[in-house]
Design brief:
This protein has ten helices and 13 strands. It is an alpha/beta fold. The strands form three sheets. The protein has a nine-stranded mixed sheet with strand order 5-4-1-6-11-8-12-10-9, sandwiched between helices. The structure holds uridine 5'-triphosphate. Uridine 5'-triphosphate binds next to strand 1 and helix 5.
Length: about 280
């Protein structure tokens, strides 16, 4: 069974909830403590065995590319000083994987961003998708994507989406699933709805920003019409595979912070600060 090699990071959204901070820098580059959100995501992908980080950018591309590249000037300044350790982690990341980039020219939604990534991912194998503004943590060392990769290893014929139970009045912020629990914490998905009003939500299980997708999703996305909000929704494309019994929803172990919202971002900052103190 081939292992999960590539991880796609859609990072082209406008990040309007974080304006004006996101006017010139991508939301994914906002730091929680000293690390940008995207670096946490890349570390998680590495933990799941991924070697290629494929990033879909829109604007502010340079900051992302520069972050995951060697800065010779900085290296020269810092070498041999007491500050050198600040670069240890990022150096090790740069040496452990390859970064590839493409640009989403028009922001037509997450599904469209994933489709844009096809040129980086190819159609040969399953791949991971990480939305870096959903910051995930697990104290026991098994990251959420690692846990999902384990599920996918056991069920290679299925996509895997991470789910979390959310309050009923928040279903309209997420893709929401329904299905049958086939083993503890694992649901075979039969229905999915993008951002349903609470009264129309099929459950309170919301999809968060972690996916493992079969490459056939690209063909489906190509034919997926714009849905909710006029955007091409990954939920709509996944529903087609769900109808064939090819989508599993996994209740992950750990915590998730919605760092796309100011409140979630502050919570994450406090949590990581307390933990690292
Ligand atoms: P969001 O729904 O959080 O949208 O996108 P956003 O534009 O980033 O933020 P707000 O709502 O305006 O504050 C979820 C993820 O999908 C990516 C975003 O970068 C984010 O990681 N995305 C969304 C794209 O890459 N392209 C798109 O067209 C839309």
């Amino acid at each position: 069974m081939p292992k999960l090699k590539k991880c796609l990071f859609p990072a082209a959204g406008y990040g309007t909830r974080f304006l004006p901070a996101t006017k010139a820098i991508p939301k994914e580059m906002l730091p929680v403590l000293t690390k940008p959100l995207l670096q946490y995501g890349v570390e998680e992908a590495l933990s799941a065995g991924c070697e290629v980080m494929a990033i879909v950018t829109g604007r502010g591309k340079r900051a992302i590319e520069d972050h995951f590249d060697i800065s010779y000037e900085l290296e020269h300044q810092i070498k041999g000083t007491s500050k050198e350790h600040y670069l240890t982690e990022i150096r090790s990341i740069i040496n452990s994987c390859t970064f590839t980039y493409t640009r989403q020219k028009e922001m037509k939604g997450l599904g469209h961003a994933i489709l844009t990534g096809e040129s980086l991912i190819g159609k040969e194998e399953s791949f991971a998708v990480v939305l870096a503004d959903d910051l995930c943590d697990n104290d026991e060392g098994k990251t959420v994507l690692y846990q999902m990769a384990e599920v996918h290893k056991r069920h290679p014929e299925c996509c895997v989406v991470a789910i979390e139970e959310v309050p009923k009045d928040e279903t309209d912020k997420y893709g929401v699933i329904a299905g049958e629990e086939i083993e503890e914490g694992l649901i075979k998905v039969s229905d999915m709805v993008e951002k349903p009003e609470p009264e129309n939500a099929p459950s309170c299980y919301a999809i968060i920003g972690r996916y493992i997708l079969l490459p056939e999703i690209f063909d489906i996305l190509e034919n997926t019409k714009p849905g909710k909000g006029g955007e091409i929704q990954i939920t709509d494309a996944l529903l087609e595979l769900a109808k064939e019994g090819k989508v599993l929803a996994y209740k992950f172990q750990g915590r998730r912070f919605d760092c796309g919202s100011v409140e979630g971002f502050v919570k994450a900052t406090n949590y990581f600060y307390e933990r690292e103190r």
